[in-house]
Sequence to fold (80 residues):
Amino acid sequence: MKFPQIPEGFRWLVYFTVSLALLALSVLFITWGISYMERGLVATSLISTLAGFTLLSASLYSLRLSAYVYAASKEEKRVA
Fold:
């Protein structure tokens, strides 16, 4: 099965959308970690918070990647 190709001008938008989804998930996991801490579930809170900060790191890396891809696509259009 062949997947459709994403146009060069919109490739950064895919990375940006993925990074926003990861950011939303990280906020959700960190919020869950705080609520678990209120209930006294220390281990669950720490694991949930760790997952939240890991997703936050992935989101920031993906945002940086989308900025690089966007800049490269703009440079490509400017040169051509």
User: Anything to note?
Assistant: The chain has two helices and no strands. The chain has a mean pLDDT of 88. The radius of gyration is 18 Å. Helices lie at 11-39, 42-79.
